[in-house]
């Protein structure tokens, strides 16, 4: 017995409509599209957002919000991420070298998350207040 021999499958499968195949098919000549008009043509019809010529709903609503392009080039790093960096002086170029940030990143902010066990010198990017205290408490400095 094979899958194609089941009677159930033969009953369930409905034949597709064969449009424009003569009078006897019931869908000959115009193929179920009626006579003339926009919807009878190929590619005819209007888009879903078209509302008959009145002002569209999405145009009537107030616009709000803003997405800064600067966010594409900005990232945050954790204090614990700096544990893997072998250099004592840490800047954006060192972070790119050790694959902590992407090469497209231009702006970095260091936040307090996790711990660091050695003193480091951080320069060239923004630092949160908590991370600033944690670095200076260990004996590191910020330039």
> Which sheet architecture does the biggest sheet show?
3 strands, parallel
According to DSSP, the number of beta strands is 6
Kindly report how far apart the N and C termini lie.
Answer: 79 Å
Helix content: 10-25%
Beta-strand percent range: 5-15%
Features of the shown structure:
three-stranded parallel β-sheet; elongated; 143 residues; 4 helices
Topology:
Layout: H1 7-12, H2 57-60, E1 74-78, E2 89-90, H3 92-97, E3 107-111, E4 121-122, E5 126-127, H4 129-138, E6 141-142
Parallel strand pairs: 1-3, 2-4, 3-5, 4-6
Task: Give a quick rundown of the structure.
The chain has 143 residues and is α/β, with parallel strands linked by helices. The chain is 18% helix and 13% strand.
Describe the 3D structure.
The structure is a single chain. This protein has 143 residues and is of the alpha/beta class. It contains 4 helices and 6 strands. The strands form 2 sheets. Strands 1-3-5 form a 3-stranded parallel beta sheet. The protein is elongated, with a radius of gyration of 33 Å. The mean pLDDT is 89.
